[in-house]
Amino acid sequence: MKRIPMLTAAALLAACASGPTDERPRVSDAEIDRVTAVLKRDFHARGQATMNRVDLDAVQRACNLYNDNPPAELAKRLEEAQLKAIPFPSGSLVGDWKRGERIAQSGRGSMWSDKPGVQEGGSCYNCHQLSPKVEAYGTIGPSLAGYGKIRGASPEMQKYTYGRIYNSKAYSLCTQMPRLGHAGTLNAQQIKDLVGLLLDPASPVNQ
Amino acid sequence: MAAGPMKMRATLGSGYTDVRVLMSHPMETGQRKDASGKIVPLEFIQNVTVKLNGRTVIEGQISQAVSRNPVFSFRLKGGAKGDRIEVSWLDNKGETNKTEAAVA
Amino acid sequence: MIDRRRRILKAAGALAGGLAAGLLKPVLAFAAAWNKEAFGAKTPADALRSIGAAAAAPSKDILIEAPQIAENGAVVPIEVLSNIPGTKSIAVLIEKNPFPLAARFDFMDGALPFVKVNVKMGESSDVRVVAEAGGKNFTATKEIKVTIGGCGG
Amino acid sequence: MRKLTCGAGIALALALAPAYAQKSIYADYQRMTAENAPTELYELAGEELWKKKQGPKNASLESCDLGQGPGVLKGAYAALPRYFADAGRVMDLETRLLHCMMTLQGRSREEATKRVFGNADRASEFEALSAYVARESNGMKIAAGRSHPKEQESYELGRELFYHRAGPWDFSCASCHGEEGKRIRMSDLPKLDDPKYVRPLMATWPAYRVSTSKIVTLQWRMNDCYRQMRMPEPAFGSDVTVALIHFMTVTSEGETYRGPAIKR
After folding, report:
1. What fold does the segment set B7-102 form as a domain?
2. D225 is annotated as an active-site residue
3. I need a labelling partner for C79 at 20 to 30 A (CA). Which of A57, A82, A206, B99 fits?
4. Which strand (E) or helix (H) includes residue B57?
5. Does residue D182 belong to the interface with chain A, where contact is any CB pair within 8 Å?
6. Which residue of B has its CA nearest to D39?
């Protein structure tokens, strides 16, 4: 799986050509801190969306600081730390693709308007094509149609796929994909079910 | 909310008078659930009447399939500035409302 | 006035009881003209039968302007014009809606057989228009695809 | 009996082969819904609210200065957000309306902002008033304030916020609105730092939203985006929401305003 497309320097240059105001200026650590301070002043907690969500971790800070294009050495170091923190379950990671499909379809979870706790929502179709039969898919991320058919379901592929869903930043630091396990949006069983959706030969993704 | 405001515009077109009327109405289908999961009861306009200078020229019957806050356009033959147009509606709960406008 | 209503009721195939109720409550008189049977019909065929239009001949003189594809079924604009001389009424049916008959308009002297209205569509469907002129019924259809169904709201 | 829950959720039943064509497949739909939009109902309700005496001072908003002088509505919306010396800050329309409710009508912030976003049954005061005021800028060129240092500051804050990633899902506005030609589910995603996309958008807010049958404003749009970004809630009329609106409005400079309009 390749890196999810993101704001590249080329895209920014192209954007600059169309108008004077759309260039993202480089920001300093101090400016990032100033934005965080403004967010802390202007936002309030609502439901499960508590104010600590405004605080930045090292990954977010690096991506903000370098316009999603951090130096390779820094990216590698942070990716490794993210990878090390993924609690991989033992045994097969291929869950129930039918439950996985429901999770992939739902956009619920982690919003102030959602019930607290883990919901059945991975928002996967918001950004990815999965089952070719489902036409309402987004294009922010790459198409995952045929994901398992192409790659097989070896233990290594299971682990990679699980990890990629749990914490995508462990593989590509500034990907736009949320860290669904790390953020507490999905639990281990739900991620396994999504792995099932992607890898199970019977899953609609692989038809 | 049922009988909210109405708004109408009647303008002289080429050979006809164009009547556009807006109605505030929820047009509930009886299928929708509210935030607490309860079914919102059926509530919709059933009859729409258009009068020109006091005489009925269009009688409409509509169902809950008409969208919330209904917008209708009608065309009346000929017409002259100052002609009085009146549009009224009646819903399944017996609520009613009407509006009047002069052709401009 | 009463003659007028009688004619509508007859055309609409409503029950005589409705007429009596209408006469008793003059303010709400036009309520009686709502064709409960036709609007309650669950198939296009039943609805057409209820408005006396079971046999309608296809006509190119009924013009339906509507988007080929609607982004949201909660609001689908439909514009209908009949060029058939002497058109007295226009009915709009959304064939795949739970209750297909969406609207019916009677046009008297002074009105053109034209209407534009927003309707809800639960799913992609043919929209059928039936025009009545000179005691005969004519029909035309147009398919409208719907991305997000709109009967819930 | 046929399935009665038609439309609950996303019921897709069509082949959208080239789903992402250059010209939106919904162009006809958007044109026709725009022609048949019930926005005037809200403009009417807004006009009533503008003239209605209320609050401890039993005053109307008729002498509210939206930047063009007390009570002047013509062109006011097209020139917002802008700096207001009497408030010492940059304000968008809704923030300014709140300011007038507090100063002219003597209402408390708490009371006036109890219900800033309405529903299909009843629009909020801000929504109806926005529709009424915005209509009076129809046909005028969008020109948000940019000359005062505070205006420059607000614009720059908006630009930084647009790209600032935070929250449990690490999103910035640009996560969804930073690239051309993307969509979320079936919905096209405009690249909001690009005049090409943002100009037609800013020219059509506030708008009647077909999917929810209600009028929506830019303050609502900012609020709901942050909800979907899994962030805490921004305060109504805060510097954050005003700055983002300011950033996008400045990016739309020169576009002819043509709202209130309709959105999907």
Report:
1. Immunoglobulin-like (2.60.40)
2. yes
3. B99
4. strand B55-62
5. yes
6. B22
